[in-house]
Amino acid sequence: MTRILFWGLGLLAFVLFIRLWVGPASYPDIRRLEQQIEQQNAANDEQAEIKRKLQMDVVGLSKDDEAVEEHARSELGMVRQGETFYQVILKSDPVATLPVSQAKAAPNVE
Fold first, then answer.
1. I need a labelling partner for 2 at 20 to 30 A (CA). Which of 8, 11, 18, 78 fits?
2. Predicted TM-score of the model (pTM)
3. Distance (Å, rounded) from C-alpha 22 to C-alpha 15?
4. pLDDT at residue 109 above 50?
């Protein structure tokens, strides 16, 4: 009787140890989930930094007209009345040196 009980408890312990190393909630599964959490935290930190920069940008734009003008000049190509716009095309830029009809057909090179 004790021998059967001993073998039964041994088999139960063996099954529990196997489940500890293989299957759901096993050590490798927990490590994989911890790595996913670390990756998600890194992505969250990156997004938080982007959000912080955008919030600073919004505050700067709402308080300062010069910041709005700077954005309009750099991103939209705004030119004041009476100013002359000069575009410098470098020889190292193959798309910019093509004629207009060929430049539209050329693929974007970044």
1. 18
2. 0.49
3. 10
4. no
Q: Are 91 and 97 in contact (CB under 8 A)?
A: yes
| Residue 94 resides in a domain | no
Report yes or no: 73 and 66 within 8 Å, Cβ to Cβ: no
What is d(CA 17, CA 2) in angstroms, rounded to the nearest whole number? Answer: 22
Angle, CA 53 vertex, CA 51 and CA 59 arms, to 5°: 100
In a domain, 34, yes or no: yes
Rg (CA), the chain: 32
Which tokens go with 73?
């000049």
CA distance 85 to 78: 9
The total number of structural domains that make up the chain: 1
Residue 38 within any structural domain of the chain: yes
Give the pLDDT confidence of 31-63 residue by residue, as tens digits: 999 999 999 999 999 999 999 999 998 888 888
Distance CA 13, CA 19 (A): 10
